[in-house]
């Protein structure tokens, strides 16, 4: 669930949507720390 939430957050950032990590985390039922950690991994994997 954390990876899916982080992927959603990446999509928001990429497309200019104004959503915070906390907002996405609350909607997904994970912590914002989980989003942050998975986001770092996705940035590296996707070369962002």
Commentary on this structure:
The chain has 48 residues and is mostly helical. It has a single domain, classed as Cyclin A, domain 1 (Orthogonal Bundle). The protein has helices at residues 2-14, 21-28, 32-46. Helix 1 (2-14) packs antiparallel against helix 2. The longest helix is centred in the last third of the chain and has 15 residues, at 32-46. The mean pLDDT is 93.
Write the layout of secondary structure elements.
Layout: H1 2-14, H2 21-28, H3 32-46
Second CATH tier, the architecture: Orthogonal Bundle
Largest pleated sheet: none
The level of helicity is over 70%
Could you name the CATH homologous superfamily?
A: Cyclin-like
- Euclidean distance between termini CA atoms: 21 Å
What does the radius of gyration come to?
A: 10 Å
Counting structural domains, the number is 1
Mean pLDDT: 93
Structural class: mainly alpha
The CATH topology is what? Cyclin A, domain 1
Counted beta strands = 0
Just give the CATH class. Answer: Mainly Alpha
What's the multimeric state? single chain
Contiguous helical run count: 3
Stretches where pLDDT is under 50 for at least 5 consecutive residues are none
DSSP strand (E) fraction?
under 5%
Order of helices and strands: HHH
Global geometry: globular
């Amino acid at each position: 669930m954390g990876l899916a939430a982080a992927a959603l957050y990446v999509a928001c950032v990429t497309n200019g949507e104004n959503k915070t990590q906390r907002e996405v985390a609350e909607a997904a039922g994970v912590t914002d720390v989980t989003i942050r950690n998975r986001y770092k991994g996705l940035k590296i994997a996707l070369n962002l």
